[in-house]
Amino acid sequence: MAVYTDVTDGELEAFLSAYDLGALLSFKGIAEGVENSNFLLHTEAGYFILTLYEKRVAAGDLPFFLGLMEHLADRGVRCPLPVRARDGEALRRIAGRPAAIISFLDGMWLRRPQPQHCASLGRALGEMHQAAADFPLRRANALSVAAWRPLFALSSERSDEVEPGLGEFVARELEFLERSWPDALPDGVIHADLFPDNVFFLKNRLSGLIDFYFACNDLLAYDLAVCLNAWCFEPDRSFNVTKGRALFQGYQSVRPLTAAERDALPVLARGAAMRFLLTRLYDWLTVPEGALVTPKDPAEYARKLRFHQKVGDAADYGLGLR
Amino acid sequence: MAVYTDVTDGELEAFLSAYDLGALLSFKGIAEGVENSNFLLHTEAGYFILTLYEKRVAAGDLPFFLGLMEHLADRGVRCPLPVRARDGEALRRIAGRPAAIISFLDGMWLRRPQPQHCASLGRALGEMHQAAADFPLRRANALSVAAWRPLFALSSERSDEVEPGLGEFVARELEFLERSWPDALPDGVIHADLFPDNVFFLKNRLSGLIDFYFACNDLLAYDLAVCLNAWCFEPDRSFNVTKGRALFQGYQSVRPLTAAERDALPVLARGAAMRFLLTRLYDWLTVPEGALVTPKDPAEYARKLRFHQKVGDAADYGLGLR
């Protein structure tokens, strides 16, 4: 939950005067998103989201994120569409922050996704990858394999506070990942954070993808590996192969994986687990005492990583030959 | 900002099936309100607010609050209207909490109200007092003069941490208030918490009063004293007599004050300042280290109290004879 920056009525009126959205009718902070401040905006033109980009988002990346959403929406991907002001610009400033208005997407995120939802997710991810293929801007993945060792260095001394032996476990796994990370797989624009709370459904139909603020250029199959971790494990931490199968079937109905991608999946899944393990570990160890926001449990991702270490090949994820 | 209780999509679907509101389209936590969890709810029937009542609100008081909103809305007061389910009940349960759906009110709260807004506020308060005159339920004010000494006892030992000498200052003032508190003034249902963030405006027109969860039976003029403190001081802490005059003119255009009410205003204003000083003092001293929510400054209300101690009579607030 997050509203970090307050916006006064005067600032908002001035900001909106650059747009053709009619009079302001309502404005409420939304308790979603952990990186930015989000507001529900109601004007005579309808309902919108106003996002203020807080300091964890680099201002230089915003043209990539906003351009990508517009590019995808233009190609039929259901995602928020940035609203341009009368001067053609979607990226503006309010209350000392970069800010943009995006369209309001109906839909609910699923607390307990089922296999059919994993299939829809896979299809939508494949469609997103295809629609982004001709997106002209580039952004490196700041949280890929090269970043993991320096990220771990920020938490390594205290990592055993989370779980005895975790530091040694991560150090060994990092060596493996750095040695084994694939580099010749198909790449393109990936979402990189497609957790259930970033995917909306309406009556079991996928109605939109949101939160493109980790999107970047990287291996396409790595995006699938992120989803595998985020969607296909049960609350009891066991892997649900039916969900895995559905995810891959959905994805491959749009874009079949190459043999090399299939072979690399266990390594990619270990890397995706490492990436979220490390950011959660850092957040866990740096959260202020007594803070209202409970950081997410890094141990969940250590367990997923151990599962992937034991996987023989992609068939164990439910990925059959096509 | 607050969403204390998460609601799953399954719980929400089941909850909504009791209403005639059509299919669920969207559901987002709102970062407003410090006592309850509030969600923006979009269904085929429109936009609504779903409120889950957290433990600081006594479940036994909810029929009073919801009944009052319905009573006022029926009489033309612009305030949220509780939505009844098909069985006629507006008060239900979800996620283990009492809950209600209320109508969504357009409007913005003013960060910097001007005298014209104080006049509108006064008028709306007078209209609310009149519209509530025949409301049949009763609820005692749990935060009136009798409650202040026990409330202070929870913070008295540490009150000098906020400001040297504050404990002694409050103790002396409590003696004065207990001795001087009026009891024969006109009473009725009061809002008791009509701060700027509970009053919506659209293009300088008052569009609604919200958050009736402190409403109770008490002296009508005490409600005005709460507003005087909350609306008529400047950011530099000085009293703005133009705003005071506007507030009273607005109120008296609907319901003229009696001579006894006018005479009692300085004492009522001291009491209203004491009530918010004490709850802020308690919150200030009990907030967890490192919490994301900054508690409101109790010293602001100590300063207002000192101002009222020096007031000669109600004319100093801008309250002229009519």
Q: What would you say this structure looks like, in words?
A:
The first copy, chain A, has two domains: 95 residues, Phosphorylase Kinase, domain 1 (2-Layer Sandwich); 203 residues, Aminoglycoside 3'-phosphotransferase, Chain: A, domain 2 (Alpha-Beta Complex), CATH 3.90.1200. Chain A has 322 residues and is of the alpha+beta class. In chain A, the strands form three sheets. A five-stranded antiparallel β-sheet of chain A has the order 1-2-3-5-4, covered by helices on one side. Chain A starts with 8 loop residues before the first helix and ends in a 13-residue tail after the last helix. The longest helix of chain A has 28 residues. The model of chain A has no long low-confidence stretch (mean pLDDT 93). At the A-B interface, helix 1, strand 1 and strand 6 of A face helix 1, strand 1 and strand 6 of B. Chains A, B: It catalyses: L-homoserine + ATP = O-phospho-L-homoserine + ADP + H(+). Chains A, B: One of its GO terms (biological process) is threonine biosynthetic process. Chains A, B: This is Homoserine kinase. Chains A, B: It is an enzyme of class 2 (transferase).
CATH topology of the largest domain in chain A: Aminoglycoside 3'-phosphotransferase, Chain: A, domain 2
- Contiguous runs where pLDDT drops below 50 for at least 5 residues of chain A: none
Overall geometric form of chain A: globular
Radius of gyration of chain A: 20 Å
Task: Show the largest interface.
Answer: A-B, 38 and 38 residues
Compressed to H and E, one letter per element, the order of chain A equals: HEEEHEEEHHHEEEEHHHH
The amount of helix of chain A comes to: 25-40%
How many domains would you count in the coordinates of chain A?
2
**The CATH fourth-level homologous superfamily of the largest domain in chain A:** Aminoglycoside phosphotransferase (APH), C-terminal lobe
The CATH class of the largest domain in chain A is: Alpha Beta
Percentage of β-strand residues of chain A: 15-25%
Mean pLDDT across every amino acid position of chain A: 93
Oligomer: homodimer
SS-derived structural category of chain A: alpha+beta
Distance between the termini of chain A: 42 Å
How many helices of chain A? 9
Keywords (chains A, B): Amino-acid biosynthesis, ATP-binding, Kinase, Nucleotide-binding, Threonine biosynthesis, Transferase
GO molecular function (chains A, B): ATP binding; homoserine kinase activity
Family (chains A, B): Belongs to the pseudomonas-type ThrB family.
EC number (chains A, B): 2.7.1.39
